[in-house]
Amino acid sequence: MIDKAIIGIDLGTTNSLVAVFEADGPKLIPNALGSVMTPSAVGYAEDGTLLVGRAARDRLLTHRDMTTARFKRYMGTDHEVMLGKKAFRAEELSSFVLRSLRADAEAYLGKMVEEAVISVPAYFNDIQRKATVTAAEFAGLKVNRLVNEPTAAALAYGLQDREAESTFLVVDLGGGTFDVSILEMFSGVMEVRASAGDAFLGGEDFTDALATELGRQLGIQPKDVSKEEGARLRGLADKLKHQLSDRAETTADYILKGEARPVSITREKFDEITAELMKRMRLPIQRAISDAGLRADDLHRIITVGGATRMQSVRTLITRLFKRFPEHSIDPDHVVALGAAVQAGLAARHAALDDVVMTDVCPFTLGFETSIPVGEDRWEAGHFSPMIERNTVVPTSRSDVIGPVNARQNEIRLNIYQGESPFVKDNVRIGSLNVPLPSDPKTDKAVDVRYTYDTSGILEVEATILATKKLHRLVIEGNPGAMPREEIEKRLKALSSLKIHPRDEQENAAIIARLRAAYENSLGETRLYVGRILAEFESVMHSQDKRAIQEVRKQIDEILIRIEGTDVF
Ligand code: ADP
Ligand code: MG
User: Fold this and answer.
1) Closest CA to 70 of 17, 125, 30, 11
2) pLDDT value, residue 406
3) How many helices (H) does the chain have, and how many strands (E)?
4) Rounded to the nearest whole angstrom, what is the distance from the C-alpha of residue 306 to the centroid of ligand 1?
5) What CATH superfamily is the domain 366-469?
6) Atom 26 (ligand 1): residue with closest C-alpha?
7) Alpha carbon distance 195, 497 (integer Å)
């Protein structure tokens, strides 16, 4: 265990995957349950260890206060989620998923893994990117590079056909985010020409819309039902949504107050109730195309990524907009992780990749707040002065010389923002940098401000007082989404004492979680049957006979597949 490897990770809102670049290309690594997709869900088990993945996801309903998911949307905020009596930030919850993926990679590779390429939505701002790096640090992983998810996708596709010159449009609709990117590959160089997106649009919104519709059919209002009831209804909506990707109509029985009540949904109705969401997908697509200075006809390849692009309405929209079918020869669930592994292969200078180079762009404008003169000696603050424009190729560095508005000023406060509005109030505040000025009124007070944007899309700001050559660096402060260094160190210590559920017991935990969920979701005979299996399995587990446990687990898995497939939820 001395050799090192760099892994590629797709840290998703819904599912996370890990892959590695091998001699014959990128390869997905299975988790302890044998699946390459690990649900991004975390929770406490009864013994106080942490469950990650499928077992945690299946306990979302049965152990609400001990389990959580969809925390990627809190990255870069100070929002905390309670698990039992403990509060966790998104960086910490994500670190548990990363720890689990890292353990899977180590088990597969038989060597230590300490470095990773991690994908992030192209639209992740500076604070969210820094939070992702912190999550990795919490998991004992050094981030070699953050790669934009659509870039990773194009990299996975581009590799199949790298001789050709192509312009790609990548449309990624995941659980919680929507990303559109335009990339160009030319003599082995992949360049991101433009990216746009909507950080609050994903497949989960389609599930919510369907849950509301099912609630309407059942005569229950989301605000009137218990959290458990709401979550169960949502679970059914998610299942029916998946089914509508392959059929025109579907029905199910929902158990309400001990009674099986039928619900049904056609694809037509589903499209009607999600029409507003579909509309929101158009704008980022159009913006990416116009930002790249292209027309729809100029795009050679259209790639769909993310589980939610399996919905027929999404495929229809794209086919209509571009008058051709999108490509999907690589599974939309796998493509980002495979691309992250290609990037990891590039970082490790893998021989098979020596003719591929990659460049990326910053997806948004970065700058600072300025005041503009509005008459004699009067200044108006709140204006945005761009330093690095959207879609500049990274890494990049720009500098500008600024001075105080007033000659008697002994400090300049640089308020750093990111966004496209001319007014800072509409942009995202990244942080502030206080630059003390020379007190001698005769000394020149000009300050050179330099913005550097690295390949991961992470910003560094430096200010140098030209007269004294004194350098000041941005330490993100006053932004609750960014964790100060001391806080990171403190939490890192606390986290190291938390134990992840043993890897070789994950299959048992996952089967029990599934049995409990099946018990909750069934009635009558089925429920009694599941209850009996649960008790039996627990007694087999007490025997500690590994062979017997494995055998029974296999049988239960088959039974559960049948039960989960029936339409009683
Ligand atoms: P993320 O990148 O956010 O983790 P994924 O790419 O894994 O997300 O996509 C998850 C979303 O895709 C969820 O909203 C899920 O319900 C949806 N999804 C997955 N498979 C299907 C399907 N067959 N039909 C419709 N939606 C699907
Ligand atoms: Mg994704």
Assistant:
1) 11
2) 79
3) 14, 27
4) 6
5) Substrate Binding Domain Of DNAk; Chain A, domain 1 (2.60.34.10)
6) 308
7) 40
